[in-house]
Amino acid sequence: MEPNADKLRGLCITSLDDEDDDETELPNQPLPASTVTVAAAASGYDDGDEDEEAEVMLGFLEKPKHPGLLLRHLFPSKAGGIPAWLDPVNLPTGNSSCCGFCGEPLHFVLQIYAPIESNAAAFHRTLFMFMCPSMACLHRDQHKQWTRNQGNPRRSVRVFRCQLPRTNVFYSSEPPSRNNSDKPLCAGAALCHWCGTWKGDKICGGCKKSRYCSEKHQALHWRSGHKNDCLQIINSSEASSSVLPAVGKVPARTSWPEYQIAIDDEVDLDSDGCDE
């Protein structure tokens, strides 16, 4: 994060709700099972009856008792670190994973597990938030929203939604026991060995083992030590991957500290027993 990251506190990403009435609206189509879609980070929604009081949930950052509690098959809500993709195969790719201004891969901020009980297709549902760490891009994003640009909007903040039915190819239909015996039903896509966030579509031309989401991350990994590791893998008779980072551990120093998000109901200040 840049030294002037404190300015984030004063940065307001304006909503797109108050666009002109003649604006073309995107169709609100249901998502098929195992789908990842891109949504505007500040998009609004119709809450129906204005007189009906909306239920509010609060999230509190806590250090996890064990890092294993934040793995994808336990359906965590978390902030920082690397994402625990709900659908570990069909990940956002191309421009969806990059800042619309500088073109660099976006950084993972947080994810919230938010299933919808009344929707069988959203038995499992997680929202993922990503942003560019550049303050310059965030300011340009804010300016673009002010200009009401009707073209293809560029964004430095993105939110993805992924949902799955109860019966799917990735997880058991039974709830996790959380006793260290839970395992996903299948492996996910190969991720970038530098950031551990996006799909590793690019392969190191030397060792043919390390994967990357972008040329920049490949260059950063090379300079941080993969230059020597690459030769070690090539010269190894077994071509061992032991020199590559383990799952959930990546060499990038740009990820934010990892926390578990504990979710609780908002306290009704008018109710009895709320002195604390």
Structure in words:
With 276 residues, this protein is of the alpha+beta class. The chain has a domain of 121 residues. It has 2 helices and 9 strands, in the order βββββαβββαβ. It has a 7-stranded antiparallel β-sheet with strand order 1-6-5-4-3-9-2, with no helix packed on it. About 14% of the residues have low confidence. This is MYND-type domain-containing protein. Keywords: Metal-binding, Zinc, Zinc-finger. GO terms for molecular function: zinc ion binding.
Give the gist of this structure.
With 276 residues, the chain is an alpha+beta fold. Helices cover 12% and strands 17% of the residues. The two termini are 36 Å apart.
Kindly report the spatial arrangement of strands forming the biggest sheet. 1-6-5-4-3-9-2
Helix content: 10-25%
N- to C-terminal separation? 36 Å
Total number of beta strands: 9
Low-confidence stretches: 12-49
Number of helices: 2
Return the average pLDDT rounded to an integer. 77
Could you tell me the strand content as a percent range?
A: 15-25%
User: Biggest β-sheet, characterized?
Assistant: 7 strands, antiparallel
Shape: globular
* Rg estimate, integer Å: 21 Å
User: What structural class do you assign from the helix and strand content?
Assistant: alpha+beta
Order of helices and strands: EEEEEHEEEHE
